[in-house]
Amino acid sequence: MTVDQRLTAAREYLGYARQVKVADLPELALQRMAAELRRQLGQVLALLGEASEVLASALADAADYREQRATKPCATCEATASDICPDHEADFDLSDSYLALAAELGIEVQR
Ligand SMILES: [Zn+2]
Fold first, then answer.
1. 109 C-alpha vs ligand 1 centroid, how far in Å?
2. From ligand 1's centre to the CA of 94, what distance in Å?
3. Which residue of 24, 30, 72, 78 sits 20 to 30 Å from the alpha carbon of 55, by its own alpha carbon?
């Protein structure tokens, strides 16, 4: 089952579970529903964990790439009084914004 299929299945089951009147269900049906909700939640949490790891790696790579670009001065950098041209300054800003996004998302980035 693909990630998209798992998320769709979880959304559909949650939609169904929200519409069910719990008081009308026999105990066995409630136990089955609780088990299915736990199973679906476990799958979604696992997917979030995997996505978080990939995102952390991608943001670290992007931040490193921009930082490396920014620290290699070009002719325009050397011709400016501040020793950094707008393009290279933008690279620093992008690197910072990638790390800030990771922090906002609570994702630990290894660098
Ligand atoms: Zn430059």
1. 27
2. 14
3. 72
Q: What is the pTM of this model?
A: 0.72
How far, in Å, is the centroid of ligand 1 from the Cα of 92?
A: 11
Model pLDDT for residues 20-31, shown as the tens digit of each residue: 999 999 999 999
Distance 69 CA to ligand 1 centre (A): 9
- Residue 93, helix vs strand vs coil: helix
Residue 58, CB half-sphere, CA atoms under 13 Å: how many?
7
Residue-wise pLDDT tens digits, 46-67? 999 999 999 999 999 999 999 9
Task: Say how far apart CA 10 and CA 44 lie, in whole Å.
Answer: 8
